[in-house]
Specification:
By secondary structure, the protein is an alpha+beta fold. The chain has eight helices and four strands.
Length: about 180
């Protein structure tokens, strides 16, 4: 029975995470995978080349050896495994799964701060640090999205948690209280 895409992603992502951890190369593999992900997202045709049934395996291996130059042995081994088992199209999803496992192991969260005006890096960092401290995490990296409709304040979305400290939400609560009293 063939595996679903989700099963392939979970299986390969977990295997890579465990392998990198066993080889004491977790941080190196994480950094290299982030660079690889950026390159593949910028040039998605890379994935097509390694999944093209017209190219034979020797041609694909030659192309892969050119790309994997400078990567650690762990990442090179992983890329060759994907090529051997014809799972290169799942590369980005596997990297994302690996990153989730990495972040969970290091107590790192990624989230979004929605504000009425753009926050600078120091403000985002301070907000992330405050959240991390409150919830016992090692760090929280926040992306900023601007939504002028919230009027002011901030809506934090980190994992499954949403903290709505927007002026719009506070006004809505006041309005609800006034209506319920009448």
């Amino acid at each position: 029975m063939a595996l679903s895409r989700e099963e392939i992603v979970a299986r390969y992502g977990t295997a890579l995470f465990n392998y990198a951890q066993d080889m004491n190369a977790l941080d190196t593999v994480k950094e290299e995978l982030c660079e690889l992900r950026k390159a593949v997202c910028t040039n998605p045709q890379i994935l097509s080349v390694f999944s093209d049934p017209i190219l034979n395996s020797d041609e694909k291996k030659k192309s892969l050896s050119a790309i994997e130059q400078g990567f650690s042995t762990e990442v090179q081994t992983f890329l060759n495994l994907l090529l051997d088992y014809n799972h290169f199209l799942e590369l980005v999803d596997i990297i994302d799964f690996f990153n989730k496992l990495y972040n969970d192991s290091k107590k790192i969260m990624v989230g979004t701060a929605i504000t009425a005006v753009k926050l600078d890096e120091d403000q985002l960092s301070a907000l992330g640090d405050s959240y991390a401290k409150k919830f016992g995490l090692s760090s929280v990296t926040l992306e900023n999205k601007v939504d002028s409709e919230i009027i002011g304040g901030v809506i934090l979305k980190v994992g499954d948690c949403v903290i709505d400290g927007s002026v719009k939400n506070k006004l809505k609560k006041i309005r609800a209280q006034l209506i319920s009293k009448n």
